[in-house]
Design goal:
Elements (H helix, E strand, L loop, with lengths): L8 E4 L4 H12 L4 E5 L4 H9 L2 E4 L16 E4 L8 H8 L3 E4 H9 L3 E6 L4 H14 L5 E3 L11 E2 L5 E5 L14 E4 L7 H4 L2 H12 L7 E5 L3 H12 L3 E6 L5 E9 L2 E8 L2 E7 L4 H16 L4 H9 L9 E6 L2 E6 L4 H14 L5 E5 L4 H15 L4 E4 L15 H5 L9 E3 L6 H8 L5 E5 L7 H15 L1
Parallel strand pairs: 1-2, 1-4, 2-3, 4-5, 6-9, 6-10, 7-9, 10-11, 11-12, 12-13, 17-21, 18-19, 18-21, 19-20
Antiparallel strand pairs: 7-8, 13-14, 14-15, 16-17
Helix pairs in contact: 1-2, 1-4, 5-9, 5-10, 7-8, 9-10, 11-12, 14-15
């Protein structure tokens, strides 16, 4: 599939993270774009401002937003059901229908491609690599699952001949890509609602390695068992591997220290010890930075420029994002939705709390994930001082009998007065205001609409402070 088929593209679900990125790149290239989404969002407003024709609500007539010249291709994601009226109409008209990943792969044509995959950390790592390359004035094209704090964008068409993309394994769609530089941060069981078994999930990463271009390289973490096994597999297939981590020989993480809400990693590279400054806290983020550094070197960027770019990386929205302060309480928001991610972020947040208590408001994501990992979520949340668990954000899944946030709350190894299951959104702000006080850090966490609570919590702290 070539980019030519996207001469006039219509994107169903254009406001989504991946779809909006494709739309932005097409618009950057001067191509007409239309699309639709179920509801209004800031993403739609931005795309309209860039020139896209966007409808709210999905209907067959939306394929005529271009007027007499209909779309040359209709782009869909895995979230679009077979009975979607726009997809049905596209097939009836005999139009080319592309999955989001195939459209993105077409946009990569003619570029040297770097793809970042992994169960955790791929958005942050892709973002760090992108910002570091920008700092080196290489002007990469990029497509990321989150918005960069520096630009507020999740995608861009650059002129540097390099394309950096976050590669999504959740539905196996990253198998559409053929990178010359592949990064796999870790491999740990997830998305079993799609893959079915741990073995099948692991196998899709092996298939991804098989997609690396001849002469390409795999960059992976030596400390993660799944990634380490993948590295061994890659070498058996003749793929060159570069490893990073505390137990790695290519880039060794010698030490990590939190510093003023950020962190400094000391690494050994080519026999020399260097400092990598990371503006976002947590040793897991330092690992992501080292992965980005190695990938940048493989792409030919200068070491000094990469280090400066990583040091200046301001983070990604919804990755330990500061939302505000009120009454001496700081409120952050984070996308973590897997037990390993939750534990890593809470460990990173602890020193950032500066001795105050850590209050986490967690929303489980997907019924299947909650059922499979309730005990692991509970153990991870036990790293906080006060825990509020919301009900499950089902997303694409139907409710399962007996699977609620109570399963997670019941698994948290803290005293009863420190764990609270609260399925009602409207009751959460006053509850959290009763739990947190001056000097505490409140962290909303999850992949669903829990992110909307940040402003409401700050408003409640304001109200309580004024009332007091």
């Amino acid at each position: 599939m070539t980019a030519g088929s996207l001469e006039r593209a219509h994107l169903v679900g254009i406001g989504g993270a991946g779809m909006s990125g494709i739309a932005r790149i097409l618009l950057d290239r001067g191509l007409p774009v239309s699309g639709s989404d179920a509801k209004e969002s800031p993403a739609l407003l931005t795309l309209r401002a860039q020139g896209a024709k966007v409808a709210v609500g999905q209907a067959a007539a939306n394929l005529d937003l271009f007027g007499t010249d209909g779309p040359t291709a209709v782009v869909v994601s895995s979230a679009i059901k077979a009975d979607n009226p726009e997809l049905v109409e596209a097939k009836q008209r005999g139009l080319t229908v592309l999955h989001r990943s195939a459209a993105l792969a077409a946009l990569m044509a003619g570029h040297r491609v770097a793809c970042v995959a992994g169960t955790h950390g791929k958005t942050s790592t892709t973002s760090m690599l992108t910002v570091a390359l920008q700092h080196c004035r290489l002007d990469p094209s990029f497509a990321i699952g989150g918005d960069l704090n520096e630009s507020g964008a999740n995608a861009h068409h650059g002129n540097g001949g390099v394309f950096v993309a976050e590669a999504d394994e959740s539905d196996g769609s990253f198998l559409a890509f053929s990178p010359s530089v592949a990064v796999v941060t870790n491999v740990e069981a997830d998305h079993l609602d799609h893959h079915g078994t741990v073995e099948a999930y692991t196998a899709v990463f092996e298939s991804f390695v098989d997609r690396i271009e001849p002469g390409g390289v795999l960059v992976t973490c030596a400390d993660d068992p799944g990634a380490a096994a993948l590295a061994t597999y890659a070498e058996s297939r003749g793929v060159r591997v570069r490893r990073y981590g505390r137990s790695a020989s290519d880039v060794t993480l010698v030490d990590y220290a939190p510093v003023d809400g950020a962190g400094v990693a000391r690494i050994r590279l080519d026999g020399a010890e260097l400092e990598v400054r990371v503006a976002v806290p947590g040793e897991h983020m330092a690992g992501n930075a080292i992965a980005a550094l190695l990938a940048g070197l493989e792409l030919g960027a200068p070491l000094a420029g990469l280090l400066e770019g990583i040091a200046g990386f301001g983070g990604v929205r919804r990755r330990f994002e500061f939302k505000g302060r009120s009454g001496g309480v700081r409120v952050y928001d984070d996308y973590a939705h897997h037990p390993t991610e939750v534990a890593a972020q809470l460990r990173a947040a602890r020193p950032a709390a500066h001795g105050g208590r850590l209050v986490v408001v967690f929303q489980p994501h997907l019924y299947s994930r909650t059922r499979l990992f309730a005990a692991e979520f509970g153990a991870a949340l036990g790293l906080a001082d006060q825990v509020v668990v919301l009900d499950v954000y089902g997303a694409r899944e139907q409710p399962e009998p007996g699977v609620t946030g109570a399963l997670v709350a019941g698994a948290v190894p803290l005293p009863e007065d420190q764990v609270h299951y609260e399925p009602s959104f409207e009751r959460v702000p006053p509850l959290v205001a009763s739990l947190a006080g001056p000097g505490d850090l409140v962290l909303t966490m999850g992949a669903g609409d829990v992110t909307m609570l940040g402003p409401e919590l700050i408003a409640e702290f304001d109200r309580v402070g004024k009332a007091g």
